[in-house]
């Protein structure tokens, strides 16, 4: 069912759209994921329902409408962006003592009538699975939050596409901050369109660290995840780096390519900042946060 919005909040949202829409059309800029995150927070706050004992039930279904251009821009990293937004809403609800019926469902839509930079969020109170299905986020411990994240589906767009298989992992688990491999038993999500069984030609990344010399990461699988989250293959310990920042993927045409996953600060490739994707050639260099990478094919 649709969440009932406070009339005052509804009027404020209308006035905000009235002001933001002309501004966005006159001064278009690249839509950043953090802007959508803030809009999701606002939609959650504005659409809670008061329950007994002063508790507030937060909506758990969020439909985000964007311009066609913005939707295309976010599409390559959509799966990981949705995952980050879901985790953020769970923590936001817990901090504000809201109750969520289920894990938030977030879906992105493209709408031709919207201009670049415009965001519209519509919310619903979806039914829980089994019993009342309530997830009392105000009572969740950090351990419970970790369990929720671990059980989070890979595809949360309301479509019927199946989950992608997990990316094959290196047999050596991460044992120190400078070891570049994912923690045992924690597979990072994979992007669609990559054959996980493809034979990968010899290639490697030489990584120059801020304070501790160099490390070499051998690319031995079709998808390599890079970011601040511990489930990545290459963990970049830098606050400027997004939790899921970039992917190096082996393409069907035999080339490796790097893709930005909707990060805030982008990737600098061969000295060019804020690049979003690039076909890697032997000798290419790219920077993520304070880490420099040198790509080689053997």
Automatic annotation (TrEMBL):
Read off the InterPro entries from this record.
Cell_Proc_Reg/RNA_Proc, FHA_dom, FhaA_N, FhaA_N_sf, SMAD_FHA_dom_sf
Q: Which SMART domains match?
A: FHA (SM00240)
Segments carrying the region annotation (Disordered) are: 155-198
FHA domain: from which residue to which, for each copy? 224-274
Note one Pfam family from the annotation: FHA
Domain of life per record: Bacteria
**The protein's name:** FHA domain-containing protein
- Species per Swiss-Prot/TrEMBL record: Thermosporothrix sp. COM3
């Amino acid at each position: 069912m649709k969440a009932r919005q406070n009339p005052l909040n509804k009027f404020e949202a209308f006035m905000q759209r009235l002001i933001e829409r002309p501004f966005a059309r006159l001064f278009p800029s690249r839509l950043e994921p953090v802007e959508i995150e803030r809009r999701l927070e606002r939609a959650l706050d504005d659409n809670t329902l008061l329950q007994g004992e002063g508790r507030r039930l937060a909506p758990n279904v969020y439909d985000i409408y964007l311009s066609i251009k913005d939707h295309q821009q976010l599409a390559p990293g959509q799966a990981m962006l949705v995952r980050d937004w879901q985790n953020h809403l769970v923590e936001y609800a817990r901090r504000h003592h809201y109750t969520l019926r289920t894990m938030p469902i977030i879906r992105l839509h493209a709408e031709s009538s919207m201009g670049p930079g415009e965001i519209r969020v519509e919310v619903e109170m979806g039914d829980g699975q089994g019993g009342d299905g309530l997830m009392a986020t105000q009572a969740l411990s950090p351990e419970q939050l970790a369990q929720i994240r671990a059980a989070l589906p890979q595809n949360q767009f309301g479509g019927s596409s199946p989950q992608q298989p997990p990316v094959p992992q290196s047999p050596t688990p991460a044992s120190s901050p400078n070891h570049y491999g994912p923690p045992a038993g924690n597979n990072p999500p994979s992007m669609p369109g990559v054959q996980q069984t493809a034979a990968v030609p010899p290639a490697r990344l030489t990584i120059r660290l801020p304070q501790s010399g160099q490390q070499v990461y051998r690319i031995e699988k079709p998808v390599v995840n890079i970011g601040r989250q511990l489930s990545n293959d290459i963990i970049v310990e830098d606050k400027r780096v997004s939790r899921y920042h970039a992917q190096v993927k082996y393409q069907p045409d035999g080339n490796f390519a790097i893709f930005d996953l909707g990060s805030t600060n982008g990737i600098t490739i061969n000295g060019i900042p804020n690049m979003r994707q690039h076909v890697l050639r032997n000798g290419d260099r790219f920077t993520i946060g304070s880490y420099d990478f040198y790509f080689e094919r053997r």
